[in-house]
Design brief:
Layout: E1 9-15, E2 18-27, E3 33-36, E4 42-47, H1 52-61, H2 63-74, E5 90-93, E6 96-104, E7 109-113, E8 116-121, H3 130-159, E9 167-170, E10 177-179, E11 185-188, H4 196-209, H5 217-226, H6 230-242
Parallel strand pairs: 2-4, 6-8, 9-11
Antiparallel strand pairs: 1-2, 3-4, 5-6, 7-8, 10-11
Helix pairs in contact: 3-4, 4-5, 4-6
């Protein structure tokens, strides 16, 4: 019989060439549940008193589905082209393209004007300053824009019984967004390249994951209720990166 002292256990199974690691927890629920989270972690919640072999058999039975879910999250964020941060380079902001222009200025700084992102340098020989200046500017814009979207969609989410506990901006390589068990939404700083409607889609998507942890029918029903045109917005997000 399994150890049911309330502490989660780290286990794994082999499925073909893949090893599926998972956290096993116990509760008073009557059936076993398997959740794949956006960070690719797998949580198995089994009824208290479940035998180890019975749990393993059910995880093995759902192994193909688990791998499918993990691959979905791995492909959630397509690769963005590398940037060189030089004059003439194109940078996207809220779905529109802007040219980078490095110029002499009294002080280092970044301003957007006339379809350009103007980077001022007090010393034009210090080109290495361009990258951190532009990165900091985009980060500041992401904090402002994401904050407005999160606040607006939090009000809608609460009507559906979702209680988010704030958001954080992180640099992620495989996802536009994620969420934590504590109710925090994590948004990729690169999401600022996308149109506002796509940012809203990612925020709504992750808010729904706070209530429905995988892509079940219940998840899509909730997403549809919150954002009826979510499919169109997702398609636009994919196009945005491909352009």
């Amino acid at each position: 019989m399994s150890d049911t002292n309330g502490q989660p256990r780290s286990l794994s199974i082999q499925y073909g060439r893949s090893q599926i690691a998972y956290q096993l927890r116990y509760s008073k629920r009557k059936t076993l549940a398997i959740d794949v989270h956006p960070d690719l972690s797998v949580v198995v919640t089994a009824p208290t008193g479940s035998a180890d072999d019975a749990v393993v058999k059910k995880v093995e039975k759902r192994a193909a589905w688990i791998i499918q879910q993990q691959r979905f999250f791995q492909n959630y964020l397509p690769k963005l082209p590398p940037r060189r941060y030089v004059s003439g380079e194109s940078h996207r902001y809220l779905g529109r393209q802007y040219r980078l222009r490095v110029q002499q200025a009294e002080a280092d700084g970044v301003k957007m004007a006339r379809g350009q992102i103007n980077v001022g340098l007090a010393d034009l020989t210090k080109k290495e300053r361009v990258r951190p200046l532009v990165t900091a500017w985009f980060r500041a814009r992401a904090e402002a824009v994401f904050g407005e979207v999160f606040d607006a969609w939090t009000e809608r989410a609460e009507r559906h019984g979702i209680e988010p506990h704030g958001f954080e901006i992180r640099k992620m390589t495989n996802r536009w967004g994620s969420c934590t068990a504590e109710g925090h939404i994590l948004l990729n700083s690169e999401l600022i390249v996308a149109p506002m409607q796509c940012i809203e889609y990612v925020v709504a998507h992750e808010l729904c994951h706070l209530k429905e942890h995988n892509h079940s029918n219940a998840f899509y029903r909730l997403l549809k209720a919150m954002l009826p045109d979510w499919e169109r917005r997702r398609e636009r997000l994919n196009q945005c990166v491909a352009e």
